[in-house]
Each structure stands twice: as C-alpha cells, then as structure tokens.
Amino acid sequence: MAIKRSSSQQKSERLPRQKGKRKPTEVKAKSPNSEENILVSTEIVEDLENNNEDKIRPHRLVDYIGQKDLKAVLQIAIAAAQQRQEQLDHILLYGPPGLGKTTMSLILASEMGVNCKITAAPALERPRDIIGLLVNLKPKDILFIDEIHRLNRITEELLYPAMEDGRLDVTIGKGQAAKIRTIPLAPFTLMGATTKIGSLTSPLRDRFGLIQRLQFYYVDELTEIILRSASILKLEIEQEGAEEIARRSRGTPRIANRLLRRVRDYAQVKQQTVITQPLAGEALDIHNVDARGLDWTDRLVLSTMIDQFQGGPVGLEAIAAATGEDKKTIEEVYEPYLLQIGFINRTTRGRVVTDKAYEHLKTVDS
Ligand SMILES: Nc1ncnc2c1ncn2[C@@H]1O[C@H](COP(=O)(O)OP(=O)(O)OP(=O)(O)O)[C@@H](O)[C@H]1O
Ligand SMILES: [Mg+2]
Predict the structure, then answer these.
(1) 146 lines ligand 1 (CB under 6 A)
(2) pTM
(3) Whole-angstrom Cα distance, residue 236 to residue 299?
(4) 350 close to ligand 1 (CB < 6 Angstrom)
(5) Which of 62, 74, 102, 106 for mutating ligand 1's site (highest number of atoms within 8 Å of CB)?
(6) What is the pLDDT of residues 86-145, one digit of tens each?
C-alpha cells in the first residue's frame, strides 16, 4: 500500500501546542489571619491575546456552534447561578483535542461576567503555583486547568478542600515545627479539561458538579463554523466549498479553521477570489488530507494494521511500535476519529480494521 509522506510542516502542526507560559513575577500574598507572608508565585496564563486563533474564537454562547446537549446543560447552570448570585458549580469537560473546551471556558466567563484564568496541569509543578492562582481569584472567577489528568498528587490534594470548602490548607515549616494554616478563598469555579477522563482520580472527578463530554461535530455544524470564520477573515466562500472543507475536518473545529487557512493560501496564490468546492478539494489534496479528512499518519496507522497485522486484532503498543508514532498520540488524537467514523473497531483482543476502511483506502490508493 502506497503511503505518501506529508511535509514536515504538516506533521509539526500536530504537535501539542505549548499550553502555558509562566510569568516570572512573584507576588506576596498575606495570610489573612497572621503576620506571616506566604510566598506564592506565578500567574500562568495561556497566551490567548496574541494568538491568531482568538479572532475567530466565539466569545458568546450564541456563537458557539453545535454541542447542543452541552449548551443546554450550561445554559441552565448559568441562569441558576445568576439567579442565586453565586458562582457556577465546578465543571469538567472531556473529549478529543480541538473540540472547544478552552473556548467554552472563556464563553462561560464572559456570560457570567467574571474573569477566566487559564493554566495547564504540567505548569503547576510546585504547591505555590496553584496556591498563587487560587488566592488571587476574585469571587465567581473561573480557574481553567487544561490536561487536568496530569496534576501531581500534592497539587491535586491542595485542590480538594479548595473545591469543596473554599479553603486552602497550607503546611508551613518542616518536621515537628510544621503547622497547617488555613487560607479562605473567594468562591470560585474550577473548570477542568481533559482528553482522558479515565486517568482522573475518582476523588478529583467526584468533586465536579457537572461532568460533560464534548462530541465530534457534524458536517453541517462544521460548515457553519467555516462560513463564520470565513466571514471574519473576509473570505468569499461558496456553501459547497465550505462543505468540502467540513467533510475533511475530522469532526473538529480547530482542524476546520486550520484547513480553511490552507485553502485561503491556495486561493490567494492561484489568484482565485471565491473558494469553490473544486478549489477547496485541490488545495486540501496537496496537503494530503483526503476526502474523509484522513492524513498521512491516519493512513499509516491503518495500512500498518493491514500489512503487518492482517487487519488485527492488534494492541495499541504494537501499532505504536510498528508506526513509530507515540502511543499516547495514537490513542488520543488518531484513534478517536477512526473509531468515530467506523474505520476501526475496538475488541477485547485489540483493534481491528473494518471493511469500511478497506473500501476507503482503495479509493485513496487509486
Ligand atoms: N463550537 C464552536 N463553534 C465555533 N468555533 C469553535 C467551536 N469550538 C471550537 N471552535 C474553534 O476551534 C478552536 C479550537 O477550540 P479550543 O481551543 O476551545 O479547543 P480545545 O477543546 O480546548 O482543544 P485542546 O484539547 O487541544 O485544548 C477555537 O479557536 C475556535 O475558534
Ligand atoms: Mg484547549
């Protein structure tokens, strides 16, 4: 089976984004019931303002397309919290990357009229990282922690009383002289996001009042997202052109917006003013994104399963070893979409390639 290698640039687009940046400033927070100062540090914020994506990121719930169930649940939660003049309950969002978890946290903050601080679990190395964020929250603020399944144990244990009782229990000093100091916190909402809900410890998971899964988007929803992004970017695009991009977007808004940009480049260089279906198709073909949105790595995974493991059943470890791809990336990025479109099945003995995938690969190969 012939596999076309994608450009290195296309591969690098798949690498995880750098989630947080750390400001080196250290602030001194006063413990409310003592003279003692506790050194807390670091405001860790995602660099959203400078991010190109921010322009097309929806800022209100009405502009957030799709995810009907999630929106219905959150609309009730917002209205109830506002009536009671309280903060939102803690919310855990899970699902594959790029489906709109960060976007939703920013929308909730703007609907509630509060601030949203964004960080990611790997940036919360030391206890003072999380302490610094928590003590600086204003009432009803949202603290968004991405990749929350990667929190270390100490940080996670600091979060338990913070989430449950709005306080921090901080140990000061060492050994026999160690004292536990309790710091009251402003009532806040913790929003956690994860691609791997199964890796969360149950004490942490159980402290979330709302646990919601994000679904892959339908083609008509992605079409709407592309038409909206195109109008923000001032691009002229036909309905069919948007649909062509949507079909190749793996059910994922982030990919839809990225492909739209690639098509924009192509149209510009070819001096075309309107994005039509054939133009979008041509543009994406040269990026090796096929008619179902599969890229080089998806096809490598499938063809490896077929050529080396007779179509399966085969374990994830073996697929990772044979393709040279990271096991986690296959599990979190590639496999969910292949499962979703029914190109592979998961059985107790491993993954199996389906007839649908064989059919599709034939059309791509020819
Ligand atoms: N429902 C939506 N409607 C319109 N655009 C959306 C929607 N969801 C996401 N997007 C677009 O997709 C992009 C990616 O979304 P976002 O960053 O929220 O994904 P994510 O789930 O947080 O991904 P990750 O798991 O990688 O952090 C956003 O910049 C936004 O423009
Ligand atoms: Mg995100």
Answers:
(1) yes
(2) 0.82
(3) 32
(4) no
(5) 102
(6) 999 999 999 999 999 999 999 999 999 999 999 999 999 999 999 999 999 999 999 999
